[in-house]
Amino acid sequence: MVRRIDRAGEMEAFDAVVRAGSLSAGARALGQTPSALSRIISRIEARLGVRLLVRTTRTLTVTPEGEAYLLAARRILADLRESEAAIAYQAAPRGRLRVSASLAYGRITIVPLLADFVARYPEILVDLSLSDELTDVLGGQADVAIRFGPLADSPLTARRIGSNGRTIVAAPAYLARAGTPRVPEDLYAHNCLNFNFRRVDPGWPFVRDGAAFALDVGGTIEANNGETLVQLAQQAVGITRVGSFHVAGDVASGRLVALLEVYNPGDTEDIHAIFVGGASTPRRVRVFVDYLVERLAGQN
Questions:
Q1: What pLDDT is attached to residue 2?
Q2: Sign of CA dihedral 84, 86, 91, 92
């Protein structure tokens, strides 16, 4: 059986004894016993075939061979520390991290998390783009993108970070002027603000007595993002149906009123962080996605 020799540990022990000026002081510095250090130095001397230290009850003298060994040991230990520091520096999460999210979700959910994230990973530069237009992650437009709803087949890796329902809302001033809808069909008499992009089901879904149905409602304004629709609702322009995360604060404060909740079908869509996965995925991407899962996955 081949006995493994901890050369670096031996060098550190010898250096500690010389610096401290005695075996007992060196042992205290290393958290070992003087007898253990004595055995280490004897083992080095036996292997090298030279005397490194001359020890008496009162003094400890380094021999010329000991001086040469000490010089080499300190150089080797310095190189080792420098190499470990360089490797640790390369492995730490760092660099530019390009994140893409929708305008509303980014503003309401992602931005409030960034202060804690950059405090945890100060070597990462977060490059955040908020837009309701889809970015091409495979094409290199972003490192991480947030997606709502079903995901298209692709070689990208996706991790679920939450889910989102939808809520119909209006401002108290609008309801005071136009009346409050009590059943879904009342919406035909209201100014309903819609998205302008094509959806699988363009109507607003409802459920009554366990039966699902949808109403094709409309109004005077359509927009390509929920941020605009919520702002219009806040201005008492009309009624809109948007992501619940988007209006939770306004509903809680009374700035907006949730409508027809008894008819809400409870439809939800998963929220994913998508990125190019694999062994070569940069650590900055992995730690950011892990952070989103940690902070958001339990929220709806």
A1: 42
A2: positive
